[in-house]
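Follow-up to my earlier ticket, as requested here are the two runs.
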Amino acid sequence: MAQNVSMEDFEALLNESFEIDTPAEGSVVKGKVIAIEAGQAIIDVGYKMEGRVDLKEFANPGEAPTVAVGDEVEVFLDRVENARGEAVISRDKARREEAWDRLEKAYASEERVEGAIFGRVKGGFTVDLGGAVAFLPGSQVDVRPVRDAGPLMGLKQPFQILKMDRRRGNIVVSRRAILEESRAEQRAEVIGNLTEGQAVEGVVKNITEYGAFVDLGGVDGLLHVTDMAWRRVNHPSEILSIGETINVQVIKINKETHRISLGMKQLQDDPWNAVEAKYPLESVHTGRVTNITDYGAFVELEPGVEGLVHVSEMSWTKKNVHPGKIVSTSQEVEVMVLEIDTAKRRVSLGLKQTMRNPWELFAETHPEGTVVEGEVKNITEFGLFVGLPGDIDGMVHLSDLSWEERGEDAIQNYRKGDMVKAVVTEVDVDKERISLSIKALDDSFSGAVEGVKRGSIITVTVTAIEDGGVEVEYEGAKSFIRRSDLSRDRAEQRPERFQVGDHVDVRVTNVDQKTRRLGLSIKAREIAEEKEAVEQYGSSDSGASLGDILGAALKSGDE
């Protein structure tokens, strides 16, 4: 019985020893390289088991195999024995298992891992992390887009694990995170040595529309386009180029965001310090048009000093016109200084002030009564606008078009573009108005009535008979005698008693040069003759009749 128990115990101990000493399939075991032949390493993994591993599994990507006889290595045991009685082992799988254990610990503690970029794939690169292959997205290679990754291939360098999934065999790493961390440390150190107002030297790294980024030795500062020069700079490339070394001043440092604002013009003399002395009010200077807007044009008096010519100060005559139709960019113009505001760094300039006021000049050269000729520029319901010297217009009112026709009828005789002559009747410089008269060109009335004055007796010719009176003519000047003025006797105040062509003596009651009309009256002539006769041949107290007095006057006249 004792013998049977001892045999059972021995068998149990033997099985236990097998379980302890025999490696389990699917585990990593240690082995020793006992030979290298036919591109393979023969490895003794113990317990009288040997296996073969291709030499390439002992090489890092892009490198030669590093293995020799006698080396102790770790391999992955797939199967204890294959058809040839050899163990099926793998160095790659062993390295991968080892790497995953190591990488999981690093990922959990957010530690950096070392690896080498060895291949390019869609969207990025592959990285060997000492046995495990990770994906490096293109956006995580550097802080800025990398055009050529050649210099980075095969180079051992640190990476940060962003994500890993052992079950799927997925690892994502970043090189950019390492660079940003290093850069942040470097920026903090550089910024700590900078002070606002300090002059430093830097290299232009990048140029944008709004400015340039300058490398100050590990940290970038922004040089805004408005701080590059005292003058207007349309684009930074006008005065800077990439790679150029420049001197700048630190304007502002934001300790929280690590942003640095730089300036170049601050290291130069401010031209505004001498503006008031150099550009006194009402002084005239030559400048260059640098920019044109809807409300005016900017003119550079000198580098760094610009003034605005408001659209209202650009031309005496061109109203409501875009400044671009009066001046052009880069054009040199003469301007007058109208106002200076040093605090706001503004200069108000005038362009028209450097030229004579065309209305003043016209008034000097064309006094009232002067005959001018011009083109009809516009026709409105109240008159004609005629172009005059100096690019100004004069207006002929409806009432100044014709003596004979109504203004509404007379204006129909004119067309835009017609050349007309007119007389200057008034020039108002302040209101910029010039009044003209076309009918004033006809001076026949003045010639006809020369010497005729109120109270004169003249002979007129009847030209028309109307119900309200008769139309008469004197030396080409027409007039109208109303019915009530045809006779002192009411019974004789009949227009039909006259015939066209009759010559009638009348008394002038009014001479109106403005309307070219004579006030005429037969009744006034008769009353004047009666009065004269009474004064000469009798009086109302003598008892003589009017017939007697007139008879005597007529008889005296015949003698």
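Run two:
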Amino acid sequence: MSSSSPASTEPSGSAPVLSHRQILFIIFGLMAGMFLSALDQTIVGTSMRTIADDLDGMALQAWVTTAYLITSTVSTPIYGKLSDIFGRRPLFIIAISIFLIGSLLAGMSGSMYELAIFRAIQGLGAGGLMALPLTIMGDMLAPRERAKYQGYFLAVFGVSSVIGPLIGGLFAGAPELLFITGWRWVFLINLPIGVIALAIVLRFLHIPHTRHSVRIDWWGAATVVLAVVPLLLVAEQGRIWGWASAGSIACYAIGVAGIIGFILVERAMGDDALIPLKLFKNSTFRVATILGVLVGFGMFGAMMTVPLFLQLVEGATPTESGLLMLPMILGLMISSIASGQIIARTGKYKAFPIVGTFLLLSGFFYFSFATADKPVWWMMGGMLLVGLGLGQLMQTLTIASQNAVEARDIGVATSSSTFFRQIGGTLGTAVIFSVLYTRIPTTIAAAFADPTLSERVRAAAQDPAVLSDPANEGILKVLQRAQENSGSAGSALDGDTSFLVGANHDLAAPFLTGFADATVTVFWVSFAVVAVAFVLSWFLKAPPLRAKSALQERTDAQAAEDAEDELSLAAQRAAELAGSQLSPDTASNRVVDPSARR
């Protein structure tokens, strides 16, 4: 046990392990680490086209995204388990260091293949940056207090979501900064932020940790990779490969074999498992985990589809679409901070998953009425509803999972919750885009068949002013190909959509209407998934939040054990001094001096 732990014989009255000042400094470091991972998810999107053009690999850009996604998802539960064994501090330092090395290498990439490999290295660090901050919060703060502080973490997530596309667009648009190609700063900007985070962590993150003698679940780590990687791969690439192609079928088979192997290994490992199966015996943890998967699906369904709608239908640039997402981010921040304050004061959280899923459900229902002629402000109403729902769900589900397990399992419970939410988000992204691009040819064909829209196109195509405008050159070529080949219009949005930028609104109307109608189908899919989450949220049991942090619980338990051993040892010594032929009953074992164990 750490020498900083109190040795009181009255655990309930023990002093806090960390002072308020220490906790605040640690939180600053954790927020800096989380800012790194959250920013990296949004900053790359708006610059990827520029990067792919410069590295001559437009067709390979999906692998850059997939590589990061796979390694960050797979490493999340591994960080959680290892931090339970070796302590949070060394694992968080390792995560930041790996992320910074990956960022430096990514900024030096000479090809898309190199960039994919280096993004995978970044992902290995990002898995720890996503899971460990909330785990460390679970150590330091009691569940009721934790809700207050987690609102700040969601604020960091919200800010990074807004400024990420802006910074990415600025860097990608700059030919050179400090004699370095502009887009490379998308990755190099992580270095100064990461160094500051690392300095704060090294200086202030000193959490007492008791080393436990456990087996490391290497086979569990191997089988989770075998289970998750093929399924994530086919989820990302299946639409391109074909869902029934040989490559997809091979991924299905390997993934299923990996899942079976993982379950068998985890059952054999018991408490030492990477994701102990005993956690799922707890109904609160089980329901919160399933809700996390469904909410992850809905969250990514909104965050991936709405920006596309804003860019293609409303004509916003990537940077402008990031700013237009502000109502969702504000809703998320307001509801997360407000719900955190209420939980901290009342200790009750049962209502928030119900209200949160209802608001999320209402947001998708609202979006289902979206049309190509709806103004931007109308879309913002739906974004606000979705943000208000997500803000109540993200932290509440994490708190419910942490509160449902023993103090020693906080790390693995938090990382497991994050892991399954990422799985839900990945599946959501794959399903959403599969449905979207399956529907687009049908909806565009239907739009061209609409007499009103086709008349607008015909009239605009005969207007000399429209024909002489250079901005319409691209769309006129697409329309000409559509006349020659009736099926080509439906596939016009599969690749380069720049022909819509600045194009005459009447000429673009069938494409915009077709895309809007296809997007509405996606919103209905998200609505159906979140509806299941809403029903399930009523079954989430909400036991009272514990009044002590996990760290305090472990410290007090150790202090109580030491006090009991000291009493037994004193009785044993008294019997020896009195010359008793029979020493007091100490469970037939000679008591070890507690100080010798430190």
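The only thing I checked on run two: The first helix runs from residue 20 to 43. Let me know what else you need.
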